Amino acid sequence: MADVAKVIELVGSSSTGWEDAAARAVKAAAVTLHGITGIEVTNMTAKVENGEIVNYKTTVKVAFGVDG
User: Alpha-carbon Rg of the chain, whole angstroms?
Assistant: First the structure.
C-alpha cells in the first residue's frame, strides 16, 4: 500500500439502483486509475417521473494509492 492516497469524487448513474450506480462509478474509474483501495458513499439522489424513480445517482469518493 502506498504511503499517500489521493481521493477523487465521482457520480455514478443507473436505472436499477444506488448500489449499481456506485459500482458503475468505480468501474469507470478503474479504466484510468490503478490501485483503488476503497470508496465512501457521500450522497444518493434519484430522478422521479410520474411518481416513479427512473434514474439513481450515487456520489462516491474514490481513494487510490499515489506512486512514488
Answer: 14
